[in-house]
Amino acid sequence: MLVARLAAQLPARRALVQYPIHARTFASKKSKRPQQDPSGSQPAASSQSSSEPSKQHPNVDPSAPEQAPAAPGDISDSKLSDLPSLSTLDFTAADETPRSERTGARSAKDSPSSIERKTRHMSKLMIGIAALGLGVYAASLGGEWTEAELKEKRMTLETAPSTRWGRTVERASGVFDLFTKPIWTELLPPPLPAPHQKPYTLVLSLDDLLVTSTWDRQYGWRTAKRPGVDYFLAYLSQFYEVVIFTTQHNYTGCLALTHDHQTAAPIVEKLDPYGFHVAYKLFRDATKSENGRPVKDLSYLNRDLSKVILLDTDPDHCTTHPDNSLVIPKWKGTPGDRGLVAMIPFLESIAIYRPPDVRPILKAFHGKDVPVEYAKQEAEAKKRHIEAWQQSGAKRLSESGFTLSSMFGSTSTPSKSPVPPTYLEQKRAEAQALYKEEQAYIAANKENFERLLEEDRQAMAKEMSGNALGVVQSMFLGKKPEPSENATVAGADVSTPEKV
């Protein structure tokens, strides 16, 4: 059967497909076989080869008689010789893709065009010019200091770098001053002329000194004023130019890093609503950054540092001028606290006695409990005053026994005169009287102050809304914003002189 024959030849065909070289050799040998004689005689080799299929194909009987040719389409009795010759099949393997090896020659597409060459030359030229300019700039940074530079940097010839490299580094680091130094070179305006200017400047921190904040689930964050803070500010404003200096931002500032909902400006306004006691307010943009921490550099205050006192609760804020600073304990909301009021006698004594330089006095109290230590010194001074008065001549005259009543035979002993107050006590009594007078004036005119504050708020809100509306109209509608009713001559619109 044909199926049996094909199954018998299948291993041979697989071998030929697997080894294409043998298949090609077999095909070449078959092409060299002699042609069959037309007379029907066959060579011996062919007869020999015809007898071999019985060995290769045991299912084929060589002695069987030849059968008649099968009808077209009948393949059941087809012979092996009638099948297509294997020589007509292409068993050669596909040629492998030849490898592309580098010959060292440059490809045309790798060579730059004329425009690219010009661009490269121009880039090299610009880099060279930039390097030359940078070198010239670096050389100019090492020049000598000028008087204007020393004044701007708040240095002297003794404190400024003297070497060329030191001057270069100092001037080059000035590029980052926008991020590390206060926004203004002078944080406060020039002092007022006498007698309006207070002799000393008192810089107060806000966080945990004047106020503090607490949080609970019922109310969230709440800010509380320290006990006695109103009296502290009102009383000492007689002697000092009071400045509140906080490390928090005025627009998104907070009392702590987690108090993101609070702003510092409204809190400061609550401490002095009428503007009687706090002269100036400084916020985070007025601080100096050192190692990523805000520092209150007092040299930017535009004040004589010999007459500046800084009260703070964080020693990191006072690193630039420790001799001008006093670090006191933080207030964490304890009711009935007297720590702030206890500082008043010490501060008022400095303002009353008016020393030429406050720094030696403040340095003597570093690391001590200032109210307690000063109370001891004031008690000792009072004791010395009494002893001096007792030894004075006025006391001896009062104890001499000669009085007007003794001339008429009276035997009563004269009473001793009271001890006169000290100079500090006299000035303190005067300051207390002025404080009471000021508080009475504020209480009597509180309604007028509140009315003025409300008018200012309304005018400010109207001005802000008018400016915003005018900007929108000019941007989208092309309308010119109308001038405000409170416009001055310099800022009024010339087209509407009647509103001036």
TrEMBL record:
Q: What processes does the entry annotate via GO biological process terms?
A: protein transport
Q: Which SMART domains match?
A: CPDc (SM00577)
CDD domains from the UniProt entry: HAD_FCP1-like (cd07521)
Q: Where is the FCP1 homology domain positioned along the sequence?
A: 195-350
Q: Which Pfam families match?
A: NIF
* Superkingdom in the source lineage: Eukaryota
Q: Does the keyword Phosphoprotein apply?
A: no
Where is the sequence biased in composition, kind Low complexity?
36-57, 81-90
Assembly description? Component of the TIM23 complex, at least composed of TIM23, TIM17 and TIM50. Interacts with preproteins in transit.
| Family (UniProt) | Belongs to the TIM50 family.
Could you tell me what this protein does?
Essential component of the TIM23 complex, a complex that mediates the translocation of transit peptide-containing proteins across the mitochondrial inner membrane.
Record's protein name:
Mitochondrial import inner membrane translocase subunit TIM50
